[in-house]
Amino acid sequence: MPTGSFKMIFVRSELMLSRTPPMGFNTWNTFGENINESVIKETADAMVEKGLLEAGYNYLVIDDCWSERERDPETGKIVPDKIKFPNGMKAVSDYVHSKGLKFGMYSCAGTRTCADYPGSFDHEFLDARTFAEYGADFLKYDFCYKPNVANGPLLYRKMGMALKASGREILFSACNWGNDEVNTWIRSAGAHMYRSTGDINDSFPSMRDISLSQIDNLAYSAPGCFNDIDMLTIGMYGEGNVGSSGCTDIDYKTQFAVWCMFSAPLMLGGDIRNLNDKMLELVKNKDLIRINQDEEGRPAFCTTGSREAKSFVKLLSDNEIAVLLVNFGESDAHVEFYFENIGIPAASGYGLEMRDVFTGKNLGVKKEFMRRKIAAHDCECYICKLAK
Ligand code: GAL
Predict the structure, then answer these.
(1) How many angstroms is it from 237 CA to the middle of ligand 1?
(2) How far apart are CA 64 and CA 242, in angstroms?
(3) Is the pTM of this model over 0.90?
């Protein structure tokens, strides 16, 4: 093959959207309908000042409730809410871009969005062009108010095509909450990530149930299209739009480790302007982000465990191996697994040299099995190398 062709292939793969799980912030969990130009600008500022952009969180996505209640009767276009966004969306997008961030918008495959604003049903190509005019780099596409006669998968295919025709490269984030066996066809519709579950709220049971529900679907998440288990609630402590009972710092630690291990998109949902130092340190943990963003994009697998004491293993590039032990239960538990069951028989003489990603501590080489006592809701996570 001539050198030129090699070059071409390299450039294309560099450009591929969603080569690793998308990272960023979405307004819904904290702000719900209370979004406006200042909130977006302040969030953009905070993402940069707090080092989140540098850590990889580069999309700032405006969720539902950004438009007027009806389309413009003359142009048929969706119109940004004139009070929330008095300077229009292009101005907001320009500001977000000026900070080095990418800009995300939201619409819905049905006739109305979930919060009852105009949806894109039968307006897919016009709306995709409108988002491109705004300078959008990302579109979250929801599933409310779908006419009964409409075919769900086809609606996603349509928007996939409309985005391709829009003249702009726009990451397509499908959100049909796992309907119609979404993992079997969504990649073929051009989506770069897809929601596989119902909505998260800021409580441990919500994040536990979402996590456990996707154990059999971990392999349906790969470079080009990742399984989205919803926006993170880290740092919400029960406040905001999906604030529920709230979570403890331990709960948030486990949430982040699970999302990273599951190769899930990392869309922050807490108020970036007020994230405390501990939560900032958590979501910027380099080892956890490395596990999430590993270039090979191999899925984790669940090795053993009772209903609530689970262990996961994910092969990383550079011959490293990530291990996550989670106690999803309500009291202390032993989380264990046999190395034999992850492909390392005792007879091989090999074990795992383990480094704790939260403390940085090296545990030395463990062999044959791993058994750790872990407190309720807590987890331990290691980056390992095969060693004798
Ligand atoms: C839900 C979706 C949420 C949020 C909300 C907005 O369907 O799952 O993530 O976008 O709609 O109304």
Answers:
(1) 20
(2) 13
(3) yes
pLDDT band of residue 13 (cuts 50, 70, 90) is very low
Task: Decide whether any atom of ligand 1 lies within 6 Å of the 64 Cβ.
Answer: yes
Residue 220 in tokens:
């349906």
Residue 222 in contact with ligand 1 by CB distance below 6 A: no
Confidence of residue 15 (pLDDT cuts 50, 70, 90): low
Q: Which helix (H) or strand (E) holds 108?
A: strand 102-108
Contact 259, 266 (CB under 8 A): yes
Residue nearest to atom 6 of ligand 1 (CA): 64
Confidence class for position 3, pLDDT limits 50, 70, 90: very low
Question: Is 323 in a helix, a strand, or coil?
Answer: strand
Check if the beta carbon of residue 229 is closer than 8 Å to that of residue 214: yes
Q: Of the residues 127, 142, 230, 251, which is catalytic?
A: 142
- Reported in sequence order, the residue ranges of 54-137 that DSSP labels E, i.e. its strands, are 59-61, 102-108
Chain-centroid distance of CA 237 in Å reads 20
**Is the Cβ atom of 378 under 6 angstroms away from ligand 1?**
no
- The answer to whether the CB of 233 falls within 8 A of the CB of 269 is yes
Compute the distance between CA of residue 220 and CA of residue 203 in angstroms, rounded to an integer.
26
Q: Is 33 in the pocket of ligand 1 (CB under 6 A)?
A: no
Query: What does the pLDDT average to over 39-50?
Result: 98
> Does 199 participate in catalysis according to the annotation?
yes
Atom of ligand 1 nearest to the CA of 177: 8
CA 354 to the chain's CA centroid? 27
5, exposed or middle or buried, with CB in 10 Å at 0-12, 13-18, 19+? Answer: exposed
Q: What is the mean pLDDT of residues 280-288?
A: 98
- The reply to whether 142 belongs to the active site is yes
CA distance 157 to 152: 9
Tell me, what's the pLDDT at 1? Answer: 43
228 lines ligand 1 (CB under 6 A): no
Show the tokens assigned to 327.
Answer: 């106690």
Number of H helices, E strands in the chain: 11, 18
Q: In sequence order, what DSSP letters do the residues of 153-170 get, joined into one string?
A: HHHHHHHHHHHHTTTS--
Catalytic residue among 45, 199, 209, 249: 199
